[in-house]
Design goal:
- The protein is elongated.
- It is of the alpha+beta class.
- The longest helix has 35 residues.
- The protein has 21 helices and 8 strands.
- Strands 2-3-1-4 form a 4-stranded antiparallel beta sheet. A 4-stranded antiparallel beta sheet has the order 6-7-5-8, sandwiched between helices.
Length: 702
């Protein structure tokens, strides 16, 4: 053995160990920061509200008033047959005990219902301030004192109780979401790989990538103030496991094939990385670019989800292109046991499902294309059946105590607001503002509150029920009549969420489409192919929302649709859908450079990548489907639409429609690039872009 061969052998052994060592160092560095991510996660209203909205300004100014942010509760005492004197005495005693235990902003006064069945006590405390743990502890103390007895039911509701119940759901996202995601991915990998060992390697790498993403997300929060919420951190975890497993499937498939052709695992992995690396890099870059477009959103929760989602995808990419190859090389061929790809062996030849699908699409491409378009259009009509905007009390899958309290109030106080509107006005205009509000026809009562830092807080009770059309009109008219004041409170927050989501759709959607289109044009060197992929993913998004409209109300029993569903599902489905399109089109381009005719190139690309894309689509859909088990309606709706969209994209649009369109357009699909011109063989492929011609001729995946 010569000196050169010795050096090569040493490098083959050293490089994987070096990569592994670097990852150990990296994890040691980020470990202290990853553990702190939960400390900066906030799920207060201000963390989800629009950055420039009135309700956000109200929440921020309230933080600066004496005593800080106020935690507002409503104690609801109810007896079906009517409250007795003993019931009222018990209620007074419990409320008095709460006042002794906690520092309240004012002495609570009971408000009886006209039918005598219900007694309502508004309770507020400035003690917890902006600390979510203190707020939750305060709510639980109140619930511990306000207990039901002998037919008298007591429920604690109000904004503070709703926030506490929501925080319990978000806290449950961490453990159950992670464990469920890992379990789902593990089962699918075992089925796909049919190996007792191989499935564990990408799963462990994905877990390491998730840990890294937590440390990076904490750093973004500390350096740039990026909002970290339960929703965004949960989606980040799903993207790490979903996208990371997709990249692993593509790499392992290519690596397995190269092991049959190349004797040494190190050399086989080098060829595999050169072959699928560009497609993986391009697809992850497209997903990251699409998610970063959310930075243009005005909604805090959406704007924060963009960077965190990008962190998840990029950490998954880094791990799957460095740590995973190193581990696979160190483990050698035996990691594939019992289906070990022996050197010089040939894979079993069998007609695959995707060969059959490709053949049917190739015979009648226009018929298949027209039929698929009609089907997607029909499904998209289901959007007309989407329920209206989701109300705050309808946002829980399982009804908590706070929602039960609000329902009791709605029945006992019909046509009357039980949820005050908060007005923040300059202290110098406080008296005039109070007078103007008292003269408003939609206002039942006005109470002046705290003052400080140049602002005064005013509590306004509307004559109409919370989040009704009449109360919404009152809020809007108050904003018109009081331009120097800010109008907030729970109902105003819901109104701002709806309006801002509508604004964000108009701004973010075009940015996403243009960004993704430009990346595809640069990658595929064509205009027609990128337009085809973009139109396809938009059609998938519309059809997925349409399916949601058909099942959200009738099947799931949801009373409304999250206002942010349209924007978030669009960004994710466009970015992730184009991801799979890149895998298919990149292979089609390789086949065309190798000399294949357009129709043959399209069908070969489908046959050789269809299985991997289908496996990746199943994994990604399953990871988002994990959100169906969460306790908030907006998470269930988001998970359902994305999971359905990924499945539609994988098994209908990517396999049938894009392939059929490519066959029908022939060379025009690459217009105006060099591949659109005759003859194909006259075109010189760029370095590293053309596959091994002998393997293409033999029908093996490069």
């Amino acid at each position: 053995m010569g000196p050169g061969e010795t050096n090569v052998g040493t490098r083959r052994r050293a490089v994987p160990w070096l990569v592994l060592g670097l990852w150990v160092v990296l994890l040691a560095v980020v470990s202290p920061f990853a553990a702190k991510l939960s400390e900066v996660q906030n799920d207060r209203a201000v963390d989800y509200l629009p950055a420039s909205a009135d309700s956000t300004q109200v929440a921020e100014i309230q933080d600066r008033l004496p005593g800080g942010e106020s935690t507002e509760l409503v104690l609801v005492y109810h007896r079906e047959g009517g409250l007795t004197a003993a019931d009222r005495a018990a209620a007074d005693a419990q409320v008095a005990e709460i006042g002794v235990r906690d520092r309240l902003a004012a002495e609570p006064e009971g408000v009886p219902s006209e039918d005598g069945t219900t007694l309502m006590y508004p309770v507020a405390s400035n003690g917890p301030g902006t600390d979510e743990k203190l707020r939750d502890a305060f709510v639980e103390r109140v619930r511990g004192v306000a207990h039901s007895d002998g037919g008298l039911t007591v429920a604690v509701g109000g904004p503070g109780a709703l926030a506490t119940d929501a925080s319990k759901v978000y806290e449950s996202l961490g453990g159950p979401l992670l464990y469920t995601t890992v379990g789902v991915v593990a089962v699918l990998l075992i089925i796909i790989y049919r190996s007792p060992v191989l499935w564990l390697v990408p799963l462990v790498v994905a877990g390491i990538a998730d840990f890294l993403s937590m440390g990076v997300a904490y750093g973004l929060n500390q350096v740039f103030g990026t909002t970290v919420s339960g929703q965004s951190s949960g989606v980040m975890t799903i993207l790490v496991f979903g996208a990371g497993t997709d990249y692993a499937l593509l790499l392992v498939s290519r690596y397995r094939e190269e092991l049959r052709r190349i004797e040494r695992p190190y050399e086989a992995m080098k060829v595999a990385l050169r072959g699928c690396g560009p497609a993986v890099l391009a697809s992850s870059g497209t997903v990251a670019a699409g998610l970063l477009c959310l930075l243009a959103a005005d909604l805090n929760s959406s704007r924060g989800m963009g960077p965190l989602g990008t962190v998840g995808v990029l950490c998954a990419l880094l791990a799957m292109l460095t740590l995973l190859p190193a581990l696979l090389v160190l483990l050698g061929r035996r990691v594939f046991w019992p289906l070990v790809p022996a050197y010089g062996s040939e894979p079993k030849r069998r007609r695959s499902l995707f060969s059959a699908m490709g053949s049917s699409a190739g015979r009648r491409p226009l018929v298949v294309l027209a039929g698929g378009a009609v089907l997607l259009g029909a499904l998209a009509l289901g959007m007309l059946n989407l329920p209206g905007s989701l109300k705050q009390e309808d946002s829980f899958v399982d009804k908590p105590e706070s929602v039960a309290a609000m329902e009791t109030l709605a029945k006992a106080y019909p046509g009357q607001s039980t949820q005050p509107i908060t007005v923040i006005t300059p202290t110098g205009r406080a008296d005039a503002t109070v007078a103007e509000i008292e003269g408003h026809e939609g206002v039942a009562a006005v109470e002046r509150g705290r003052s400080g830092d140049g602002w005064t807080e005013i509590s306004v009770v509307a004559k109409s029920a919370p989040q009704s059309a009449a109360e919404t009109a009152t809020i809007e008219s108050l904003r018109d009549e009081l331009p120097e004041s800010y109008i907030g409170g729970p109902s105003a927050e819901q109104l701002d969420l709806k309006d801002t989501n509508a604004r964000d759709r108009l701004v973010v959607v075009p940015i996403v489409l243009v960004s993704v289109l430009l990346i595809l044009v640069a990658l595929l060197r064509s205009l027609v192919a990128p337009l085809l992929l973009v139109v396809a993913v938009v059609a998938v998004w519309a059809a997925s929302l349409g399916i949601g409209g058909l099942v959200f109300g009738p099947v799931f029993g949801f009373e409304g649709t999250d206002p942010g569903l349209g924007l978030l599902s669009f960004v994710f489905l466009v970015a992730l859908g184009v991801d799979y399109g890149i895998f298919l089109m990149h292979r089609m381009r390789e086949e065309s450079f190798a000399g294949a005719e357009p129709a043959a190139a399209a069908l070969t690309a489908l046959r050789t990548t269809g299985g991997v894309i289908a496996s990746a689509g199943l994994v990604l859909a399953a990871t988002f489907a994990v959100l169906l088990n969460m306790g908030l309606v907006q998470l269930v709706q988001l998970g359902f639409v994305i999971a359905v969209g990924v499945l539609l994209d994988t098994f209908l649009v990517r396999t049938y429609l894009v392939t059929s369109a490519s066959v029908a357009l022939r060379r025009k699909v690459w217009w105006p690039g060099p591949l659109s011109k005759e003859p194909v063989r006259a075109v010189e492929p760029p370095p590293g872009d053309a596959p091994d011609r002998e393997r293409v001729a033999a029908g093996r995946q490069p």
